[in-house]
Amino acid sequence: MSHTSPATYLVWTILSFLSGAFLVFHLWSFDRFKCVRWSSGPYSGAFKRVMTYSYLLCIPLIAIYSLGFCIIKYRQGFTYMPGHGVMPTPYELWPQSDRDLIFPLYLVFAVGWSLEMVTHLEELCFWLFLVNARTTQQDWFRSWYFRTWTVGSLAAVIYMPLVTIFTRHNLPKCEASSFLAGSLGSLALTFLFVPVLWKFPSLLQNLRNEGADIATVARLTKFHELNTLRVICRFIFVAPLFILGFDGMRPHQHLNENMVVTDTLAVLAGVGCTISSMLTLVVSIALLFSGPRLQTHIDSRRIRNRYSFPAESKPRSK
What we know:
The chain is an all-alpha fold and about 325 residues long. It has helices spanning about 5-30, 45-75, 95-100, 100-130, 145-165, 170-210, 215-250, 260-290, 300-305, and strands at about 80, 85-90. It has a two-stranded antiparallel sheet with strand order 1-2.
């Protein structure tokens, strides 16, 4: 926070608003926002609502965090510190009105990141369910993958805000612990997604052996490519924040005291988060369109009942 330049938060703000614009554009193009209604069709159950609105809330919360600190950092500017040179004004020198906003913005960020983990965990559990399913009669909602998602999601939305709340009396540690807690959870989810990428080519080969049509295999191949890119971008997102958070918890913070390092890592995290979020939306929409083609070889009912964003409503006819 104190070591990061105002330009870093400006980049985060621009990227988060671009993600929001991308989200709005796809919702409008898909069905004129009908999919975000509380009851958008016969498949609008509690699961779909949780997934839809958690995804919808995540991006605005990150945008609020980025914009809030962007305004404060530019308002406070830079200060010459003896022995350190010119650096962003430390938060200890901020007026009380700006310091009072630090903890609420951290809490907004923690809640937004916890909702991001809910989405990522659901993707992980469903794709593991899909590639490991032995019969097309297995039910996603009765599987232990779904139960794992339920427990893990509750843990994510509880522990992330609690970490921020319990460390709020030491603001540098609050930021570092929030970054560390969130990055550890997201890193674990990202690493666990690697087996999905490893097993997916076998699923594609099985479909070819079963005589799946070329269009079905091509779509699933594209999903595999997008998922691979998503995993790479998630590493770009969480690894820099893990480094900053881990260094911030140490007695002497070698990396956080170097503005070049903090700005570089923070910008990389913002870029990785933005691209992975956009790819998540693209994959969700693509799967919705591919469901009927996969009816014969993969139980598409599992995909339709699972995929909640956009919700189960037919796309607008042109």
